[in-house]
Amino acid sequence: MSNQQFPACRMRRMRQHDFTRDLMAEHRLNVKDLIYPMFVVEGNNRTESIASMPGIERLSIDLLVKEATELATLGIPAIAIFPVTPMALKSDCASEAFNPEGLAQKAVRAVKAAVPELAIITDVALDPFTSHGQDGLINDAGYVMNDETCEVLVKQALSHADAGADIVAPSDMMDGRIGLIRQALEDAGHVNTCIMAYSAKYASSYYGPFRDAVGSAGNIKGGNKKNYQMDPANSNEALREIELDLNEGADMVMVKPGMPYLDIVRRCKDTFQVPTFAYQVSGEYAMHKAAFANGWLKEEDVIMESLLAFKRAGADGILTYFAKQAAQMLASK
Ligand code: PBG
To answer: Is 225 a catalytic residue?
Structure first.
């Protein structure tokens, strides 16, 4: 017998009490990490449920404002709004995207007027506004035209900033759009409007429920977005996308989807040390909710574990449909 004690190190000693575990915790979820995506529809006092996203509703602006007030009281710092455009307003040129009286623009003004401390992030992309459901303008062959699309994205981003959006978030994956939008914002005097770039956005099948929510699922011409969103096989390519967006003036970058892409979040944070966000998307929400509904997973514990994983991977904030529920849980702890 050597006189060395067995075992040399007891890792379990620090796991025995709440206080040892609390003191040792490397990461903690805070309500200030949470961004709540919300769907807005025309009308008054209108709510619509979304079959594939139980617990999430499309809200008319008056109800959106009410909900925004509650979210701010919970301490949530920001919401991301997504308009549901009636078919009649969709077109090949997506001009509704930059209508100053469009749904997104009106929603921004209403929420900012009522709850100025709550940050509003707007989605810059054309898919809610094109009759064909692609994120940009298409040519006769159905190909999304990069530079022509960028011109419309610039107008859309300006209309959001004019309405009072704090952060514009291009989610379209066109090349060069961050630089063009930054320049246009500067020229228009919106020097403090932030850009959160969906830099590493994958051509993912986890977006299905979102497309149901905004009503673009049925009409995606060509069936997918693979010639602009990234191939799930790639990781180095994500770093190139992120670097380009940073060089063009992005203030924050995003990886999307979330849980299946936490390796990209980690590489992003390690490589660039910039404000990094991740989007736990609609499909991730849907599969969790399905398991909760069946009693297969324990709802509250799994939500917190899934969100903490983003922090551990290096995300500074998380866009998640669980934001409100998580905020309520954090408040009651
Ligand atoms: C639109 C957009 C999408 C999402 C956010 N912005 C869908 C898409 O690219 O088809 C998906 C969000 C989610 O699934 O929760 N450009």
So the answer is: no
